[in-house]
Amino acid sequence: MGSVQIVTTILAFAITAVAVWLAVRAVMKMVAVIRLGQPDPTRFGDKGTRTKTMLAETAGHTRMLRWSVVGAAHWFVMVGFVVLSLLVLEAYFEVVSPTGGLPLVGDWALYGLVTEWLAILGIVSILVLIAIRLRNRPTRPGGKSRFTGSTMWQGYFVEGIILAVLIMGFVIRGFKVATDHFEYPVWAAPLSHAVGGVLPDWEAGVSVAALIKIVISMTWLIVIALNVTMGVAWHRFLAFFNIFFKRDPGANVSGLGALRPMTSQGKPLDFEEADPEKDQFGVAQVEQFTWKGLLDFSTCTECGRCQSQCPAWNTAKPLSPKLLVLSLRDHAYAKAPYLLAGGGKDLTGEEKATAAQLAHLDVLALAEAERPLIGTAEEGGIIDPDVLWSCTTCGACVEQCPVDIEHVDHIVDMRRYQVLIESSFPSEAGVMLRNLENKGNPWGAPQNTREDWTKGLDFEVPRVGEVDDFEYLFWVGCAGAFEDRAKKTTRAVATLLNEAGVSFAILGEGETCSGDPARRIGNEFVFQMLAQQNVETLNEAFEGREKSKRKIVATCPHCFNTLGNEYGQLGGEFEVVHHTQLLAHLVATGKLTPVQPVDGGVTYHDPCYLGRHNRIFAPPREVLGSAIAGEAGPGDGGLIEMPRNSERSFCCGAGGARMWMEEKIGKRINVDRVEEAISTGAKTVAVGCPFCSTMLNDGVNGKGAGEEVEVVDVASVLLRSVKPEQAPGDTERAPVAG
């Protein structure tokens, strides 16, 4: 070992020791913060599925590759980071000796070939990612960047470090080539040989370059160890755990569909026995999120995919799912010293720590502890109320997140406390909640008018209890029973089922609201009250039947989602289908035959709770395709897709109980969607949700396009094709603005 190698060895191991010590300390701090969260025992079951899903999403990049260029580039960088870590390890042998290398595999030509090309593709990929970050920088002229609000220096720092490490790998190999100490032939390492052709024959250059590579790598480790909220770096470690512990590892997208039940100390809350002074009602303090919630916040990569797809953010609302998560993350870590010292408020608002426990704390941590979780800037709030109430719960953020953060659950948990304990929510929503409690529907319509939609039909609609047997229970829903446009959809579905010979029955006045708007706004008490009543009614209607024969068809995706995904939490196990699924089956089996093609071009708007939340994309399109083609049979025909469709469909603005809240900030979401629909040139905008029908009709009306563009349910489109003579009576054309 020469003098150069002595110096490089000492320096390499010294900086490594410092970096490792700081990293261990940082990991311990992060674990301590995450453990501050509430228990969640549901995250540990089915470890086989969890492991399989985690490996598929990380090694296979199944979610990242939805954005093909970025996903492919990130895959090479990720694989390069993992595999080429061996080259960083190899650098420790090279600082000791210019001829040093990894034991066992270091002499294999195959190892040299794989690492060579991973490094080459890694350099290309990181340059692509840097270019994408620069092209989408927040300061660029025009448009909103998905990186707005991200800590840009951290992104550039991480990408720069990766690029520098990869380059230094070729410099080390180049010096080995120049000094004739390289193990691999030209075919296995062409770029390394090319670099070696221009470097001098300087034997110490290998050890010096190896030291530089180690210093660069350990500088990165030191920086992230000193910045535990640096998600853009820490996600490469935390993502494995966050994906493994996702809510439903077997689902296509975990965190969509059903909401997490309201829990206290890890157990579902029973409102008959719950006590607000002993049981946690929603989330009022950051430590009241579950430990998985705190892991979510820590894992955020700041990539902004959620932000780019959020309907609120895209229409100038203050909500960005990314910024909400980052605010909660930064607050959690800033408040952590106070919490770890024993501080915190009990459920009555009393301080749990003694003065002695808090005496040594930094004033900044104490100040952070006094900030309300929900509050305006003047109040020092972490999350502004306008941010909290702008969410439509459309799930676009959850759909796009590459590390499975469950934004919607966290937002609803905060809403629950605001509604149930603080009684703080948009005033106009109060009317809706009172109507749900007193009338069993959000419009406040008399219960004895639930069956009025059946009047005038040329066939009898059977009621449960009046018929001995039926295949499907037709869940009409509040909109389908009381809202004029939705009643036309209800009549169309009933007519088509009757035409196809499907035996069905309705509950009539025995039906009440599914509870979706109450649950999404945060009033879990009203939801459970309504849901338990419905579960009891439905169980009685299906008494004696096994689950596979307890079939329900619903026209409202919100009812469909609630009955199918959430009633199981309350003892209601049913097979629930959306009406477009049943209609697609009836057409495919020849029980409904379209005869009159629908012309003028049709575009389809995917409802969030049908598409993204429940992955039902094909059936509505199959129905429309058959109606457009008429007797020619199913086909694409005049079905024109909007740019944002299927899992990237843009929300109508009605979800999350926003249907009953005024949209006062920014551009109206429904107008944004209507403009996109109109731009397709289609004369018919088909929908599969009564909320979407209302919102898009209002948008068309607002644009003054009621004479040119019609918003109509998929069922009505099919009815016009199957029974053209009934078309005039089923129109849902938006009224002309006047």
Summarize the structure.
The protein is mostly helical. 50% of the residues lie in helices and 4% in strands.
Low-pLDDT parts are: 631-637, 731-738
Overall morphology: globular
What is the distance, rounded to the nearest whole angstrom, between the alpha carbons of the first and last residues?
90 Å
Structural class: mainly alpha
Helix content: 40-55%
Q: What's the mean pLDDT score?
A: 91
> Biggest β-sheet, characterized?
4 strands, parallel
- Number of H/I helices: 29
Radius of gyration over all CA atoms, rounded: 30 Å
What is the strand content? Answer: under 5%
Number of strands: 9
Give the strand line-up of the largest sheet. Answer: 4-3-5-6
Oligomer: single chain
Count of all domains? 3
Task: Give an overview of the whole structure.
- The chain has helices spanning about 5-35, 45-60, 70-85, 85-95, 110-135, 150-180, 190-195, 205-225, 230-245, 290-300, 305-310, 310-315, 320-340, 355-360, 365-370, 385-390, 395-400, 405-420, 425-440, 475-480, 485-500, 515-520, 525-540, 555-565, 580-590, 620-630, 670-680, 690-700, 715-720; strands spanning about 265, 265-270, 470-475, 505, 550-555, 575-580, 600-605, 685, 710-715.
- With about 750 residues, it is mainly α.
- The chain starts with a helix and ends in a 16-residue tail after the last helix.
- About 50% of the residues are buried.
- It comes from Micromonospora peucetia.
- InterPro entries: 4Fe4S_Fe-S-bd (IPR017896), 4Fe4S_Fe_S_CS (IPR017900), Cys_rich_dom (IPR004017), HdrC_iron-sulfur_subunit (IPR051460), Helical_ferredxn (IPR009051).
- Keywords: 4Fe-4S, Iron, Iron-sulfur, Membrane, Metal-binding, Oxidoreductase, Transmembrane, Transmembrane helix.
